[in-house]
Protein backbone atom coordinates (compact mmCIF):
# COMPACT_ATOMS: atom_id res chain seq x y z
CA UNK A 1 0.00 0.00 0.00
CA UNK A 2 1.08 3.60 -0.64
CA UNK A 3 1.59 6.29 2.01
CA UNK A 4 -1.70 6.91 3.85
CA UNK A 5 -3.15 10.35 4.56
CA UNK A 6 -3.13 10.62 8.37
CA UNK A 7 -4.14 14.29 8.54
CA UNK A 8 -6.22 14.84 11.68
CA UNK A 9 -5.09 11.57 13.26
CA UNK A 10 -3.18 11.25 16.53
CA UNK A 11 -0.70 8.38 16.76
CA UNK A 12 1.14 7.45 19.97
CA UNK A 13 4.42 5.54 19.64
CA UNK A 14 6.64 4.23 22.44
CA UNK A 15 10.36 3.82 21.86
CA UNK A 16 13.55 2.88 23.65
CA UNK A 17 14.27 0.67 26.61
CA UNK A 18 13.09 1.17 30.16
CA UNK A 19 15.66 1.20 32.97
CA UNK A 20 14.57 -0.21 36.30
CA UNK A 21 16.67 1.18 39.17
CA UNK A 22 18.52 -1.13 41.56
CA UNK A 23 20.19 1.65 43.55
CA UNK A 24 21.07 5.30 42.74
CA UNK A 25 23.77 4.25 40.26
CA UNK A 26 22.60 0.93 38.72
CA UNK A 27 19.66 -0.35 36.72
CA UNK A 28 18.24 -3.34 34.88
CA UNK A 29 17.97 -2.45 31.20
CA UNK A 30 18.02 -3.74 27.64
CA UNK A 31 19.63 -2.92 24.29
CA UNK A 32 16.80 -1.02 22.62
CA UNK A 33 18.11 2.17 21.03
CA UNK A 34 14.68 3.55 20.16
CA UNK A 35 15.58 3.67 16.48
CA UNK A 36 12.58 1.62 15.30
CA UNK A 37 10.16 3.65 17.40
CA UNK A 38 11.63 6.95 16.16
CA UNK A 39 11.33 5.73 12.56
CA UNK A 40 7.65 4.90 13.18
CA UNK A 41 7.03 8.33 14.72
CA UNK A 42 8.72 10.06 11.78
CA UNK A 43 6.84 7.97 9.21
CA UNK A 44 3.48 8.76 10.84
CA UNK A 45 4.33 12.47 11.00
CA UNK A 46 5.37 12.46 7.34
CA UNK A 47 1.88 11.16 6.55
CA UNK A 48 0.33 14.16 8.33
CA UNK A 49 -0.45 12.68 11.74
CA UNK A 50 0.08 14.42 15.05
CA UNK A 51 2.47 12.12 16.88
CA UNK A 52 3.36 11.66 20.54
CA UNK A 53 6.55 9.70 21.12
CA UNK A 54 6.86 8.32 24.64
CA UNK A 55 10.55 7.62 24.90
CA UNK A 56 12.74 5.73 27.36
CA UNK A 57 16.43 6.64 27.17
CA UNK A 58 16.52 7.40 23.45
CA UNK A 59 19.68 9.32 22.49
CA UNK A 60 19.42 13.11 22.08
CA UNK A 61 20.71 12.73 18.49
CA UNK A 62 17.80 10.48 17.48
CA UNK A 63 15.28 12.77 19.20
CA UNK A 64 16.75 15.88 17.56
CA UNK A 65 16.33 14.33 14.11
CA UNK A 66 12.55 13.85 14.51
CA UNK A 67 10.14 16.01 12.50
CA UNK A 68 8.78 19.02 14.41
CA UNK A 69 5.29 17.49 14.36
CA UNK A 70 6.46 14.79 16.82
CA UNK A 71 5.96 15.70 20.49
CA UNK A 72 8.28 13.74 22.78
CA UNK A 73 7.49 12.70 26.34
CA UNK A 74 10.22 11.15 28.51
CA UNK A 75 9.41 7.99 30.50
CA UNK A 76 12.36 6.19 32.06
CA UNK A 77 10.81 3.19 33.79
CA UNK A 78 7.96 0.81 32.95
CA UNK A 79 5.68 2.48 35.50
CA UNK A 80 6.46 5.95 34.09
CA UNK A 81 5.88 4.64 30.57
CA UNK A 82 2.54 3.12 31.49
CA UNK A 83 1.30 6.44 32.91
CA UNK A 84 2.64 8.49 29.96
CA UNK A 85 1.30 6.13 27.27
CA UNK A 86 -2.16 5.93 28.83
CA UNK A 87 -2.31 9.72 29.22
CA UNK A 88 -1.25 10.36 25.62
CA UNK A 89 -3.56 7.63 24.29
CA UNK A 90 -6.82 9.15 25.58
CA UNK A 91 -7.42 10.83 22.20
CA UNK A 92 -5.22 8.59 20.02
CA UNK A 93 -6.40 6.79 16.90
CA UNK A 94 -3.57 4.27 17.20
CA UNK A 95 -0.96 3.25 19.76
CA UNK A 96 2.24 1.49 18.70
CA UNK A 97 4.30 -0.13 21.47
CA UNK A 98 7.79 -0.37 19.97
CA UNK A 99 9.53 0.20 23.31
CA UNK A 100 11.30 -2.65 25.05
CA UNK A 101 9.63 -2.56 28.44
CA UNK A 102 11.13 -4.49 31.35
CA UNK A 103 8.82 -7.26 32.49
CA UNK A 104 10.28 -7.00 36.00
CA UNK A 105 11.83 -4.40 38.29
CA UNK A 106 13.79 -4.74 41.52
CA UNK A 107 11.30 -5.17 44.36
CA UNK A 108 13.26 -2.67 46.46
CA UNK A 109 15.41 0.23 45.29
CA UNK A 110 18.34 0.77 47.67
CA UNK A 111 18.50 4.38 48.89
CA UNK A 112 22.30 4.40 48.73
CA UNK A 113 24.80 2.67 46.46
CA UNK A 114 25.05 -1.05 47.24
CA UNK A 115 28.67 -1.61 48.32
CA UNK A 116 30.80 -4.61 47.61
CA UNK A 117 31.51 -6.56 50.79
CA UNK A 118 35.18 -6.61 51.61
CA UNK A 119 36.41 -8.78 54.48
CA UNK A 120 39.23 -6.23 55.07
CA UNK A 121 36.60 -3.66 56.13
CA UNK A 122 35.90 -5.70 59.26
CA UNK A 123 32.52 -6.10 60.97
CA UNK A 124 31.59 -2.40 60.51
CA UNK A 125 32.09 -2.55 56.74
CA UNK A 126 29.32 -2.97 54.16
CA UNK A 127 27.02 -5.97 54.62
CA UNK A 128 27.59 -8.99 52.40
CA UNK A 129 27.09 -8.26 48.68
CA UNK A 130 23.58 -9.37 47.70
CA UNK A 131 23.58 -12.85 46.19
CA UNK A 132 20.36 -12.08 44.31
CA UNK A 133 18.06 -9.18 43.47
CA UNK A 134 14.38 -9.76 44.26
CA UNK A 135 12.18 -8.81 41.34
CA UNK A 136 8.56 -7.82 41.11
CA UNK A 137 6.42 -7.85 37.97
CA UNK A 138 5.80 -4.68 35.98
CA UNK A 139 2.39 -4.01 34.48
CA UNK A 140 2.00 -5.20 30.89
CA UNK A 141 1.22 -1.87 29.21
CA UNK A 142 0.17 -3.42 25.91
CA UNK A 143 -2.18 -5.95 27.51
CA UNK A 144 -3.63 -3.11 29.62
CA UNK A 145 -4.34 -1.02 26.50
CA UNK A 146 -6.24 -3.98 25.02
CA UNK A 147 -8.16 -4.83 28.22
CA UNK A 148 -8.97 -1.22 29.13
CA UNK A 149 -8.50 1.04 26.06
CA UNK A 150 -7.95 4.75 26.88
CA UNK A 151 -10.07 5.45 23.76
CA UNK A 152 -12.37 2.64 22.67
CA UNK A 153 -11.90 1.53 19.08
CA UNK A 154 -8.29 2.71 18.76
CA UNK A 155 -5.85 0.45 16.96
CA UNK A 156 -3.20 -1.12 19.17
CA UNK A 157 0.00 -2.52 17.66
CA UNK A 158 2.64 -4.36 19.66
CA UNK A 159 6.07 -5.64 18.82
CA UNK A 160 7.45 -9.01 19.85
CA UNK A 161 11.19 -9.30 20.15
CA UNK A 162 12.05 -12.97 19.80
CA UNK A 163 15.43 -14.64 19.73
CA UNK A 164 15.96 -17.51 17.30
CA UNK A 165 14.66 -17.88 13.75
CA UNK A 166 11.61 -19.24 11.96
CA UNK A 167 12.99 -22.76 12.17
CA UNK A 168 13.44 -22.34 15.92
CA UNK A 169 9.77 -21.52 16.32
CA UNK A 170 9.96 -17.72 16.40
CA UNK A 171 6.58 -17.51 14.68
CA UNK A 172 4.95 -20.00 17.04
CA UNK A 173 6.17 -17.91 19.98
CA UNK A 174 4.96 -14.76 18.23
CA UNK A 175 1.55 -16.25 17.49
CA UNK A 176 1.15 -17.38 21.10
CA UNK A 177 2.10 -13.86 22.21
CA UNK A 178 -0.35 -12.31 19.71
CA UNK A 179 -3.21 -14.39 21.10
CA UNK A 180 -2.17 -13.75 24.71
CA UNK A 181 -1.73 -9.97 24.37
CA UNK A 182 -4.75 -9.55 22.07
CA UNK A 183 -3.41 -6.46 20.24
CA UNK A 184 -4.94 -5.75 16.83
CA UNK A 185 -1.52 -6.22 15.23
CA UNK A 186 1.74 -7.70 16.51
CA UNK A 187 5.01 -7.15 14.60
CA UNK A 188 7.27 -10.09 15.36
CA UNK A 189 10.96 -9.39 14.95
CA UNK A 190 14.02 -11.49 15.52
CA UNK A 191 16.60 -9.97 17.83
CA UNK A 192 20.11 -10.98 18.80
CA UNK A 193 23.06 -11.98 16.65
CA UNK A 194 23.34 -8.52 15.11
CA UNK A 195 19.63 -8.18 14.34
CA UNK A 196 16.84 -6.13 15.83
CA UNK A 197 18.51 -3.73 18.25
CA UNK A 198 20.37 -0.60 17.17
CA UNK A 199 21.52 0.62 13.79
CA UNK A 200 20.79 -2.59 11.86
CA UNK A 201 18.16 -3.59 9.31
CA UNK A 202 14.94 -5.07 10.61
CA UNK A 203 12.59 -7.73 9.40
CA UNK A 204 9.12 -8.19 10.84
CA UNK A 205 6.18 -10.50 10.30
CA UNK A 206 2.88 -8.93 11.31
CA UNK A 207 0.26 -11.12 12.96
CA UNK A 208 -3.34 -10.32 13.85
CA UNK A 209 -4.85 -11.06 17.24
CA UNK A 210 -5.61 -14.64 16.20
CA UNK A 211 -1.92 -15.14 15.46
CA UNK A 212 -2.45 -15.20 11.69
CA UNK A 213 0.08 -13.57 9.36
CA UNK A 214 -1.29 -10.42 7.71
CA UNK A 215 1.87 -8.76 6.35
CA UNK A 216 5.64 -8.71 6.43
CA UNK A 217 8.23 -6.02 5.95
CA UNK A 218 12.00 -5.82 5.81
CA UNK A 219 14.80 -3.42 5.07
CA UNK A 220 15.97 -0.40 7.00
CA UNK A 221 14.02 0.60 10.10
CA UNK A 222 12.61 3.48 8.03
CA UNK A 223 11.38 0.99 5.37
CA UNK A 224 9.77 -1.20 8.04
CA UNK A 225 8.21 1.88 9.67
CA UNK A 226 6.65 3.07 6.39
CA UNK A 227 5.15 -0.38 5.76
CA UNK A 228 3.70 -0.61 9.27
CA UNK A 229 2.25 2.92 9.14
CA UNK A 230 0.67 2.06 5.77
CA UNK A 231 -0.93 -1.00 7.38
CA UNK A 232 -2.29 1.10 10.24
CA UNK A 233 -3.55 3.73 7.78
CA UNK A 234 -5.44 1.01 5.91
CA UNK A 235 -7.09 -0.18 9.12
CA UNK A 236 -7.99 3.37 10.19
CA UNK A 237 -9.75 3.82 6.87
CA UNK A 238 -11.71 0.61 7.41
CA UNK A 239 -9.66 -1.16 4.78
CA UNK A 240 -9.06 -4.88 4.40
CA UNK A 241 -9.09 -6.78 7.67
CA UNK A 242 -10.34 -3.87 9.78
O1 LIG B 1 14.96 0.25 19.61
P1 LIG B 1 15.72 -0.46 18.54
O2 LIG B 1 17.19 -0.60 18.89
O3 LIG B 1 15.49 0.15 17.18
O4 LIG B 1 15.17 -1.96 18.46
C1 LIG B 1 13.83 -2.17 18.11
C2 LIG B 1 13.18 -3.25 18.98
C3 LIG B 1 13.79 -4.60 18.66
C4 LIG B 1 13.35 -2.94 20.46
C5 LIG B 1 11.66 -3.20 18.64
O5 LIG B 1 11.47 -3.45 17.28
C6 LIG B 1 10.86 -4.22 19.46
O6 LIG B 1 10.77 -5.39 19.14
N1 LIG B 1 10.24 -3.73 20.56
C7 LIG B 1 9.53 -4.56 21.52
C8 LIG B 1 10.52 -5.27 22.40
C9 LIG B 1 9.84 -6.03 23.49
O7 LIG B 1 9.80 -5.57 24.61
O8 LIG B 1 9.28 -7.18 23.17
P2 LIG B 1 8.49 -8.13 24.20
O9 LIG B 1 8.28 -9.38 23.43
O10 LIG B 1 9.20 -8.22 25.52
O11 LIG B 1 7.12 -7.38 24.45
C10 LIG B 1 6.01 -7.54 23.59
C11 LIG B 1 5.18 -6.28 23.53
O12 LIG B 1 4.64 -5.98 24.82
C12 LIG B 1 5.93 -5.02 23.07
O13 LIG B 1 5.07 -4.26 22.26
C13 LIG B 1 6.23 -4.30 24.38
O14 LIG B 1 6.29 -2.89 24.18
C14 LIG B 1 5.02 -4.68 25.22
N2 LIG B 1 5.27 -4.74 26.67
C15 LIG B 1 6.19 -5.61 27.19
C16 LIG B 1 6.36 -5.70 28.56
C17 LIG B 1 5.58 -4.85 29.39
N3 LIG B 1 5.72 -4.89 30.71
N4 LIG B 1 4.69 -4.01 28.85
C18 LIG B 1 4.51 -3.94 27.51
O15 LIG B 1 3.67 -3.17 27.01
From TrEMBL:
One of its GO terms (biological process) is pantothenate catabolic process. GO terms for molecular function: FMN binding; metal ion binding; phosphopantothenate--cysteine ligase activity; phosphopantothenoylcysteine decarboxylase activity. CTP binds at residues 103, 113, 139-142, 159, 177, 181. Its cofactor is FMN; Mg(2+). Coiled coil: none annotated. Keywords: Decarboxylase, Flavoprotein, FMN, Ligase, Lyase, Magnesium, Metal-binding, Multifunctional enzyme. Its EC number is 4.1.1.36, 6.3.2.5. In the C-terminal section; belongs to the PPC synthetase family. In the N-terminal section; belongs to the HFCD (homo-oligomeric flavin containing Cys decarboxylase) superfamily. Catalyzes two sequential steps in the biosynthesis of coenzyme A. In the first step cysteine is conjugated to 4'-phosphopantothenate to form 4-phosphopantothenoylcysteine. In the second step the latter compound is decarboxylated to form 4'-phosphopantotheine. This is Coenzyme A biosynthesis bifunctional protein CoaBC. It comes from Actinomyces slackii. The gene is coaBC. The chain holds residues 196 to 437 of 440 of the full protein.
Amino acid sequence: PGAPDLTGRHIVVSAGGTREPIDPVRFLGNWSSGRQGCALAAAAAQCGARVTLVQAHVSPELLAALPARVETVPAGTALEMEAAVRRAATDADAVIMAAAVADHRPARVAATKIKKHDAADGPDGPAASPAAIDLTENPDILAGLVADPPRPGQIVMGFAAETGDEAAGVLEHGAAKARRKGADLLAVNQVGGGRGFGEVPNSVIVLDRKGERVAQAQGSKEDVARALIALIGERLDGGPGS
